[in-house]
Design a protein that fits this description.
Elements (H helix, E strand, L loop, with lengths): L20 E6 L2 E6 L9 H10 L7 H10 L4 H4 L11 H6 L3 H10 L4 E4 L6 H9 L2 E6 L2 H13 L6 E5 L2 H4 L7 E4 L25 H9 L5 E5 L5 H6 L7 E8 L2 E9 L6
Parallel strand pairs: 3-4, 3-6, 4-5, 6-7
Antiparallel strand pairs: 1-2, 7-9, 8-9
Helix pairs in contact: 5-6
Bound molecules: S-adenosylmethionine.
């Protein structure tokens, strides 16, 4: 720890530091990050302990550029109306479903009432509100619901959405809808370290199968947005006897970024 030095950050167009907390001004988005935490957002997990202890590594310019490249540069892919006042918190930068993909899923899930069980900052919710009559947008984190509400307003669809703060596992038995969309947390960037990610690793300790079971209490029409390395065999088994699943690969910039499993009548094939 001793050789780790604190470093004064140089203000730049991209970000600037103040005394204890820095505000990273990303256009209309203000991220609050601990002092001099200029590391790659991707590397945040690695330095979490150091941040807690107040010891921060030197910034590597390359990593700073990586944030710019990886997240900021893709802001319009996340939200085409980004400049009109979209708000995101740290987690949302890497967990929002990019608009093009969210739009595609929303077209496939067209119905009267849809539940977005893990609404986050509203990437999917906003697009469902454009293809469905009504959206029930749930998130356990009240801050995410604030973000989703703000972002839905930017797209002019807030009036079509009912925002609920709560745990989907608890709320599911009380809800009714035509389609349920599941985009649970993938457990941080480490999911990518496994060649095949098993369903039980999703939303542990419940597990991804239990989540599907909860959703089935509402409807059999389910779309399940999952990491690209998800165990496809398990998704097929989870369909149940004589039932099918369609697993779609979702691409952005020619790179596969996720898989969506469709159950029930959402299948195209
Ligand atoms: C991957 S993000 C969803 C991103 C969203 N699809 C979007 O495009 O903005 C997962 C979200 O699930 C929420 N969450 C985690 N556990 C939950 C639970 N038990 N019930 C409801 N929401 C939960 C998290 O707060 C997080 O916002």
């Amino acid at each position: 720890m001793e050789n780790k030095s604190k470093r004064k950050c140089q203000p730049s167009a991209f970000q600037y530091c103040t005394a204890k907390f820095q505000k990273v001004d990303m256009g209309s988005v203000i991220l609050e990050l601990p002092e001099c935490q200029e590391k790659s957002l991707e590397a945040y997990e690695e330095i979490k302990e150091d941040l807690e202890e107040g010891v921060i590594d030197d910034l590597e310019e390359k990593k700073r550029q990586k944030i710019q490249k990886k997240f900021w540069i893709k802001r319009y892919q996340l939200f085409s109306k980004f400049d009109q006042g979209i708000k995101l918190d740290y987690e949302s930068w890497f967990s929002v479903t990019p608009e093009k993909i969210a739009r595609h899923i929303a077209e496939r899930c067209k119905c009267k009432i849809i539940i977005d069980a893990f609404a986050g900052a509203g990437g999917n919710t906003i697009n469902f509100a454009q293809t469905c009559d009504r959206v029930i947008a749930i998130d356990i984190d009240p801050k995410k619901i604030d973000l989703a509400r703000n972002n839905a307003k930017i797209y002019g669809v807030e009036h079509k959405i009912e925002f609920l703060i709560g745990d989907f596992f608890e709320l599911a038995p009380m809800l009714k809808a035509d389609v349920v969309f599941l985009s649970p947390p993938w457990g941080g960037p480490s999911y990518i370290n496994k060649s095949i990610l098993n369903l039980e690793n999703i939303m542990s300790p419940h597990g991804g199968e239990k989540l599907l079971e909860q959703a089935r209490k509402i409807t059999k029409e389910i779309a399940y947005y999952l990491p690209k390395n998800i165990n496809k065999q398990q998704l097929a088994i989870a369909a149940g006897p004589n039932c099918k699943v369609e697993i779609e690969s979702n691409y952005l910039d020619d790179k596969i970024i996720a898989k969506t499993a469709y159950y029930g009548n959402l299948l195209k094939v």
